[in-house]
Amino acid sequence: MPFYAVQDSDWDWAQADGDAVIVEADNPEEAASKAVAKWLEVDAHAFDGAQLKVAPINLMGIIGCECTDDGVQFDGFQYIPRGDPAAPPLLTLGTWFGLSYSSWLTMPRVMMEAMPEEWQQRMADLLYEYDAAFPNNPDIYSQVNILVAGKQWLLNYRHPDREKINECRAQARDDATAN
Q1: Residue 101 lies in a domain
Q2: Residue 47 is assigned to a structural domain of this protein
Q3: What is the per-residue pLDDT for 172?
Q4: Ramachandran angles phi, psi of 7, nearest 5°
Q5: From CA 30, how far away is CA 32, in angstroms rounded?
Q6: DSSP 8-state assignment for residue 14
Q7: How many whole angstroms separate alpha carbon 35 and alpha carbon 46?
């Protein structure tokens, strides 16, 4: 789950009395909600509405610190670039599955073929790479049954229902919630 910095838009990012709140969230809206909740925990009257700045934090690193009689002493920030073995994994297959107990990835062909050509090529490359890595894959035959009425359109990749596919796209979902 990514981290976000959230701050009132009237304050500069570096303004002392308006420091950004750092929260872990799935998206900017959740980050804003968590930040407001933190502000209200400190002072129930501290927040009466605002335009909020929300920024994803993509910087990873380590900073050493030690508490002394003179206060906290910092050793300096050591940046860890993505791909470095010391860097925590951000987006892995395991994090994609989340906390589910799923053993399989099943994706409707009709939806994958509705993706942009570039995406389809990347997906095909990955599937061919997977096949090459496991040439002795056990013969397992699986079948998907659509158990929810009205969802059979997912099985018809030869004649895709563009209207149903577009209803599933993120923009269609965002537009529907905006109204």
Answers
A1: no
A2: yes
A3: 44
A4: -155, 155
A5: 5
A6: T
A7: 12
- Give the separation between CA 53 and CA 39, rounded to whole angstroms: 15
> What's the CA gap between 22 and 35, in Å, rounded?
7
31 DSSP assignment: H
Report CA-CA distances (Å) from 107 to 58, 125, 133: 29, 16, 21
Q: Which two tokens stand for residue 90?
A: 């951000």
**One-letter identity of residue 147:** L
Q: What is the pLDDT of residues 68-124, one digit of tens each?
A: 787 777 776 666 665 666 655 555 676 667 666 777 888 889 999 999 999 999 999
Q: Which domain holds residue 35?
A: 3-58
Please choose, from the candidates 5, 39, 1, 4, the residue with its C-alpha nearest in 3D space to the C-alpha of residue 20.
5
Q: Which amino acid type is present at position 150? A: G
DSSP string of 109-157, one letter each residue: HHHHTTS-HHHHHHHHHHHHHHHHH-TT-----------STT-GGGG-S
Phi, psi of 87 (to 5 degrees): -75, 140
* Interatomic CA distance for residues 98 and 147, integer angstroms: 24
**What count of Cα atoms within 13 Å lies in the side-chain half-sphere of residue 17?**
2
Confirm whether 152 is domain-assigned. yes
Q: How many domains does the chain have?
A: 2
